[in-house]
User: What shape does this take?
Amino acid sequence: MTSLAGKTLFITGASRGIGLAIALRAARDGANIVIAAKSSVANPKLPGTIHSAAAEIEAAGGHALPLKVDIREEAEVRMAAATAAERFGGIDIVVNNASAIWLAGVENTPMKRFDLMQQVNTRGTFLTTQACLPYLKNAENPQVLMLSPPPSIDPAWYEPHVAYTIAKFGMSLCVLGMAPEFKSLGIAVNALWPRTVIATAAIAMIDGVRPENCRTPDIVADAAHAILTRSSRDFTGRFYIDEDVLREEGVTDFDRYAVAPGQPLLPDLFL
Assistant: This one.
């Protein structure tokens, strides 16, 4: 399979950034995109809403269903999954992209931030996947993709921001458990993470990172497209890096993904 035409993707946090880029890449194939995100009203500090994303997706050739969803709320997630399946006749792919970030040590991490990251990153990923599972079971090439890094027990990744690391690796641990659990159902569960820092709103949380030392979200979107068009029965339980996926696809020119071609690129966290 080389196209996502006619497939229905349920993408959390798709109103901006990497989630929106993945949505737009699929939309160019003619896919149906469920935009499950909280942003329904414009925020001057964070551009993009479910409605502006829907307009972009439709303009790109896809079919959009914007749904205001807080993935911390079980009822909202289950209703969104049911609404999506009713609208498009099912759900083929779940992209767990929504994530909260707070890069600080123990002393400077308020418990409300700890709880938010656990609820959005780990619990939200688990809940969204669980809510969509009945529909994935009926899909032809069902896939779940987490935007999370290869798991690690290296203390270097815990010391500076243990709360965020725990929450982010929680998404990765879902892959470790769900991939074998769902294998007999033919549902692939994989993770994808960028080799370099990506120019999104989240880079404001990383000290010393400038946009010109980043790549655009398009590289993650192209890598996600490559993964999601593979056979769900042949590729599961993997922790992909965007650049490696695209090299497997024959891509050799990565300058086109750079915000400022020729400038040094910063490696992303956890790599």
